[in-house]
């Protein structure tokens, strides 16, 4: 009688097999529960390159709480599909046939708005287009990720937290030191690049105030942003480094994924804490450090952006005697951060973007 060999797996192999089965079962159960409860994040992809679409698709579907909504292979198709089925987030390529990602972003944000992240082979190479898209409402940008790269997942997680998927007392006037220049501090997010250009382009090259900006943007793209902004406005634009000091006629930009802070000696630095903030650098962290340490005259402004970052910090600036401004609803790409500031009574004035620069100048240069 023929005897067939019997395969008896060793304990290590059996244990690994069981753990794999358990993990697959858990993922399936989680996905079913999330879909039944309607708490998953629906993500769409707009990209004309099949390999890029596949790489993005694999990254999206490996997370139980994420679901692929649809795929579009050019900008026009993305606009059409978004109008018919608006997702929570679109991963939008910059360069596509028929209609590029910039124009598609403009149409989508005016017709069926949702969160958009620009995904391209080289953000630095296409910096001008990326910042134009951000002016229309794109939240952020990232280079096309390789498999195994968690950068995109981290960015998606931060954005999903932002979109909700995961009484004022005047302080006594402060003594303004004559040795310090007037200071303007600005916080911005969605739509920020164009809003900043509108404000800062109105100041001359020899503007007597110093300007410091915290714009929500990933550190790997901030140098490109600084270069772009430097070409748009008369004032000099530089990245803030540890030890930088505010100087008249110069715009300093937060330049890392750490929080920009003003230290007691009035120099700038970077801090890891707090770790739990959705956006790094945080406008709130910076504004609060300025309110605590700057003894000179100042104006704080909170511009267009999703969420509420900067509102608490703007309130602390007002309580420290600063003149504070929130951008109005009509001229915001996303009326989120300024809205929260208005609700907290953090803003002395609520102004359209075109009027902010002149108001700053009148207050600071008297």
Description:
The chain is of the alpha/beta class and 366 residues long. 39% of the residues lie in helices and 19% in strands. The chain has 12 helices and 14 strands. It has helices at residues 11-37, 50-61, 75-84, 101-111, 127-136, 151-162, 192-200, 219-232, 283-293, 311-319, 337-343, 353-364; strands at 41-46, 66-72, 89-92, 115-120, 140-143, 183-188, 210-215, 236-239, 250-253, 259-262, 268-271, 298-302, 323-327, 349-351. A 7-stranded parallel sheet has the order 8-9-7-6-12-13-14, with helices on both faces. A 5-stranded parallel sheet has the order 2-1-3-4-5, with helices on both faces. Helix 10 links the parallel strand 12 and strand 13. Helix 3 (75-84) runs parallel beside helix 4, helix 7 (192-200) packs across helix 12 and helix 10 crosses helix 11.
SS content category: alpha/beta
Radius of gyration: 24 Å
The residue-averaged pLDDT reads 85
Instruction: Give the helix proportion (percent range).
Output: 25-40%
> Unreliable runs, pLDDT <50, ≥5 residues?
167-177
Q: Supply the number of helical segments.
A: 12
Q: Oligomeric form of this entry?
A: single chain
Shape: elongated
How many DSSP E strands? 14
Order of helices and strands: HEHEHEHEHEHEHEHEEEEHEHEHEH
Largest sheet entry: 7 strands, parallel
Strand order of the largest sheet: 8-9-7-6-12-13-14
- Please indicate the percent range of residues in DSSP E strands (runs of 2 or more): 15-25%
What is the terminal-to-terminal distance? 107 Å
